[in-house]
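README: folding subset

This subset contains proteins for which both the sequence and a predicted structure token string are available. Records are stored as plain text. Below is the entry for Putative membrane protein (169 residues), shown exactly as it appears on disk.
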Amino acid sequence: MPEVTTHRRLDQPLLGRARFEFDPDWFARLSERIARFLGTGRFLAVQTVLVAVWIALNLVAWSGQWDPYPFILLNLAFSTQAAYAAPLILLAQNRQDDRDRVSLEEDRARAERTKADTEYLARELAALRIAVGEVATRDYLRGELDKLCDRLGAAAPGPAADRAQRRTR
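--- output ---
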């Protein structure tokens, strides 16, 4: 039996084959957009106009009233809207809570790093202050030299000798 050969290479992906890529967050993003729209003045204005037109058409048009006075169909539309709006708003709030939680964790980590850096710098500054405090200054050296000269009984040249002469007068 002859071997069936294909001209397809096994080391390369198939071209032309459409892959369906599913974004798991698309519904959550859509719900956030809807929830944002439901909280706008534009939505409230449009809804108010639609309700007013609905009621006006059903009260004025004696023939062809599709929703007579207690407006059961309008009530059903509001109930359906509320049934969908509440979970969408909750989903949007949950996503916002997740973003806030991540942001809070990042802020907390940044604050810890800043605190550690500040403590390190404070320790370094304290070490520098201690080191500078132990450094011999010019005045300290002059004073020590003056004392040494006084002990040896010899006058030191320059300003130290002048000071020694002033002290003896």
